[in-house]
Design brief:
This protein has about 160 residues and is an alpha+beta fold. The chain has helices spanning about 5-25, 40-45, 130-140, 155-160, and strands at about 50, 55-60, 65-70, 75-80, 90-95, 95-105, 105-110, 120-125. The protein has four helices and eight strands. Strand 3 (about 65-70) and strand 4 (about 75-80) form a beta hairpin.
Length: about 160
């Protein structure tokens, strides 16, 4: 192989590598949940909106995940461990119950309650509103079958 051919081959290879790396630069790296292969996660994933809290959807590198914003300010993972009873606050937004974990504020972690598989959403509250985000994701997550609802301590003591 002469020098000209070698240089041309190297240049072509360099451009190909550069394009493949540039193509991946827009992906948000995520880890799939243990139950991400659940067919119900596919039903959620295909319904994820193109915008959440006015942030554009991003491509992710993991099954049953979603991300919005640049930098990513909303991360969704379907197939996480289904939560049991909890002392953490539970909020209901558009008929979807979410357990709220603010232990890493300003990052808030919301996990669906009473739906299998469970969905987790991590929100950077410095960038977006948690309520707006959960409203925007409600239609997609709402397709999961509901098997339980959050109860308030007052409901337990009042026999409701």
């Amino acid at each position: 192989m002469n020098i000209r051919t070698r240089a041309l081959t190297f240049g072509t290879l360099s451009v190909a590598i550069g394009l493949s790396v540039a193509g991946c630069a827009g992906q948000v790296p995520m880890t799939p949940a243990a139950d991400s292969n659940n067919p119900d996660c596919a039903a959620v994933t295909v319904r994820l909106p193109n915008t959440v809290a006015n942030l554009p959807k991003r491509e992710t590198n993991a099954q049953a995940t979603g991300a919005w914003g640049s930098p990513a300010s909303v991360l969704l993972t379907c197939g996480v461990e289904v939560p049991g009873p909890s002392t953490l606050p539970c909020v209901s937004v558009n008929n979807v119950d979410w357990i709220e974990d603010d232990s890493q504020a300003p990052l808030f972690r919301y996990t669906t309650y009473g739906r299998t598989p469970a969905v987790e959403v991590v929100i950077d509250s410095n960038a977006v509103s948690g309520t707006t985000t959960l409203v925007d994701l409600g239609a997609a997550v709402g397709v999961l079958p509901q098997t339980a609802k959050c109860t308030d301590l007052a409901d337990v003591f009042n026999g409701n």
